Amino acid sequence: MPKTMEPTMTSPAPKQRICIAGAGAIGCTIAARLAMSGQEVSVLARGATLATLRSQGIVLTDLEGTHTVPVNAGSAADFGVQDIIFLCCKSQDIAALLQQIKPLVDENTVVVPAINGVPWWYFHGEGGRFAGSTVEAVDPAGSVSALLPLRQIMGTVVFITAEASAPGQVTAKNPHLMMFGEPDNSSSERLQRLCAVVAAAGIEARPLERIRDKLWTKIIANASTNPLSVVAGATLEELYTRPALRDTVVAIMQEVLLVAASYGARVEIDPLTFLELGAAMGPVRTSMLQDYERGRALELGSIGDAVLELAARFDIPMTVTRKVIGLARFHGEKHSSSTATQAAAASA
Ligand SMILES: NC(=O)C1=CN([C@@H]2O[C@H](COP(=O)(O)OP(=O)(O)OC[C@H]3O[C@@H](n4cnc5c(N)ncnc54)[C@H](OP(=O)(O)O)[C@@H]3O)[C@@H](O)[C@H]2O)C=CC1
Ligand SMILES: CC(C)(CO)C(=O)C(=O)O
């Protein structure tokens, strides 16, 4: 069975009301591209980022050059009901952001969580042995699932590398690619519409029949590199090419591949191909390394703990993965508390 459906929409992308909730590296990249393509884009932001977006717009540098893009930025109260909402935050911020976007959602709104790791809706919509069960690491006691009906969600896997150098200023050094799929694996008009809208914005958009296969492909990439990038202070190129790091990357890949296979995922990429593709992305700093360097919380819930939780259901040991996640957590907590102490001292 082909895993990528053929996009069926040939007419120009329909005009949509689109909200980007979360204006960091990925949010600003998607918002700028969509706004440049003529869509009605609203960006939900806060603090210094909101002020900058209002005064200067988004400055996106990607493979096509540098674009300065004015956007309508504000809080949820400033926007009406949306056709599409991209959630562009770290997994630990999903619940807060879902609460904020409630006024923007009606029964036709499609919510697209552009978030790495195991999604909170993983066991919803597809059936199977664990149907309806909760991934506690990302959906404690079902508290996130309760915030949004499953039928509003469109799965996505984001293959973009982006970094914000300042609020609203983002550089993305690789081609933009996003894959989309219904949680119940169905084909739908809204899936085709979403792909048409995103493709018209210069982001390659692939509709998928089995979104979980590609989720696992990305989970393998993130679990094997993001936490280790923090421990080693290493770029993707270094992680995938330096023997001392590559061995650990491969060991984690092998462990997570076993978890993916246990859940029936068909992952087409073997570890050696992962290494080649990853190295070709260049000296990219993972989003987790970016957070570490800023003293921010690390996204270990969806990228680390959720994977260990799913492995435990099949008694898969995860020896290397667990150790690296533990080390990353230790480094992250230590660094963020010393960053907070320095900030407090500086403002005293
Ligand atoms: N960067 C990358 O290259 C890639 C990232 N990803 C994934 O995409 C997701 C987003 O990552 P990325 O863009 O890098 O993350 P960032 O940290 O750069 O951006 C997240 C944004 O969400 C905002 N935010 C969080 N909570 C709220 C809230 N309650 N209200 C308003 N704004 C909020 C943050 O605001 P504030 O700054 O004020 O906290 C921040 O601007 C993550 O899951 C990441 O793993 C996937 C592929 C590549
Ligand atoms: C590094 C990358 C692009 C892929 O592993 C990523 O998803 C991240 O930075 O979180």
Strand content: 15-25%
How helix-rich are the residues, as a percent range?
40-55%
Spans with pLDDT under 50 lasting ≥5 residues? 6-10
How many helix segments? 11
| Count of folded domains | 2
Would you identify the CATH H-level superfamily of the largest domain? NAD(P)-binding Rossmann-like Domain
CATH topology of the largest domain: Rossmann fold
Query: What structural category do the secondary elements indicate?
Result: alpha/beta
Q: Give the CA-based shape.
A: globular
Structure ligands: NADPH dihydro-nicotinamide-adenine-dinucleotide phosphate, ketopantoate
Number of strands: 12
Assembly type of the shown chains?
A: single chain
The helix/strand order is: EHEHEEEEHEEEEEHEHHHHHHH
Describe this structure as you would to a colleague.
It comes from Azoarcus indigens. It catalyses: (R)-pantoate + NADP(+) = 2-dehydropantoate + NADPH + H(+). Pathway: Cofactor biosynthesis; (R)-pantothenate biosynthesis; (R)-pantoate from 3-methyl-2-oxobutanoate: step 2/2. This protein has 348 residues and is an alpha/beta fold. The chain contains eleven helices and twelve strands. The protein has helices at residues 25-36, 47-56, 94-101, 189-200, 211-232, 236-241, 243-262, 271-280, 287-293, 300-312, 319-347; strands spanning 17-21, 40-44, 58-62, 65-69, 72-74, 84-87, 110-113, 155-159, 162-166, 169-172, 177-181, 204-207. Helix 4 (189-200) links the parallel strand 11 (177-181) and strand 12. Helix 5 (211-232) packs antiparallel against helix 7 (243-262). The longest helix has 29 residues, at 319-347. The N and C termini lie far apart (63 Å). Ketopantoate is lined by residues 116, 161, 221-222, 225-226, 236, 284, 286-287.
